[in-house]
Amino acid sequence: MADRTNIAVGIRISTDIEHRPDRPAPYRARVRWWDPTTKRRQPLSEGKNSEEEAQEWLQAIVQAAQAGLTPSTATMTLAEYGEANMDLALRGLELKTLDPYLAGWRKRVVPALGHLAVRLITNGVVDRAVQNWIADEHSRSTVKNTIAVLVRVMEQAVRDGIISVDPARVTGWQKLYKQAEDELRNPRALALPDWDSLVQLADALVAASHDQYHGRGDGVVFAACTAARIGEVSGCRTQDIDTDQWIWTVRRQTTPAPGGLTDKGTKGKRARKVPIIEEIRPLVAQRILSAGPDPDARLFTGPRGGRISTAVLRDATHWDDVVIKLGHEHLRRHDLRHTGLTWFADAGVPVHALRRIAGHGSLMTTQRYLHPDVHKITAAGAALSAHLSAVRPPRSLPSPIVMTR
């Protein structure tokens, strides 16, 4: 397609679109310009799925050039921009503040947002990232420092003219954090009440999805009955299932990362073993059969074989609408894990065993799932009294003292 030349604020830009039908992304949008600093001609291109997408990309480049930005700056990812401008963004901070800020950038901001172009980061994107950090049970100060460094970098992008408003200045996250703390104090309140409710939920989610793919419902039932995270369900391979003892060795989880989903170790960095109860063994056996002979095959996938995630599950099944109709307004995907742990606790699983199943680092976290039954507490006291009476004779009373005159 013919070149078009645009001149914006001293930057001469030529754009064109090339159709290459043999490529996965057949429309290559290309822009070339004279760099005002190096005085050299620079190229930049991206493959797109349609001509419309290619036109949109080029238009964004032209608009950025009109604001005085070179195409390389306009398309810079957040990770690249932060690496190039971090010293400027954090200028004036005390040394004791730098370490937690940089840790927040490296461990949370870059994995969550680093792959996105700076100009494509919106308030909504930041909101979802913050909610995920809270859901991952990071401390309040950790979340605060992570947001703070992101705000600083995005403010520098405003000063550089890449964006007009800082999208990282989110509000209300403290309220979200308090809600998360309340939930962690009483996770039992988030659990589904019984098996029938779980089956009803799974069937309703399948019915609400446009393709009515039963694999999603199977994954929901499996997550609740094994007290697992959706990412761990997604990361499960057929080789992880021992069908002789019916035990699942949880070794990995699938999580969002720059460029898409990726597999990594479990949250606690340790493998753990989870029993597969009799009610879901036929489901698991069928999934293993469907996965084929490859031991690395995933037990649960999307309808086209892709990895699943909590966001995909939510969108594909219209999760929010379904749970409201069923009367579970506040039920989230992670609450399937709360459901399983609550059921295990109510079944009388000892707290030390429940901790291993959950993979909790702290026993206090596991104890929140125990039922605060007053009758059981008083019965425990009675049992202790009976035990003490059986192992030792009752203490004799002192003889009365006779008073004489």
Spatial sequence of strands, sheet with the most strands: 1-2-3-4
What would you report as the Rg, rounded to the nearest angstrom?
29 Å
Shape: globular
Helices, by number, come to 17
What does this structure look like?
It is globular and about 95 Å long. The protein has 17 helices and 9 strands. The strands form 3 sheets. A 4-stranded antiparallel beta sheet has the order 1-2-3-4, covered by helices on one side. It has a 3-stranded antiparallel beta sheet with strand order 5-6-9. Strands 7-8 form a two-stranded antiparallel ribbon. The N and C termini lie far apart (about 130 Å). It has helices at about 50-65, 70-75, 80-90, 95-115, 125-135, 140-160, 175-185, 195-210, 215-225, 230-235, 280-290, 310-315, 320-325, 335-345, 350-360, 365, 375-390; strands at about 5-10, 10-20, 25-35, 40-50, 240, 245-250, 250-255, 260-265, 270-275. It is about 50% helix and about 15% strand. With about 400 residues, it is an alpha+beta fold. A hairpin with a 4-residue loop joins strand 5 (about 240) and strand 6 (about 245-250).
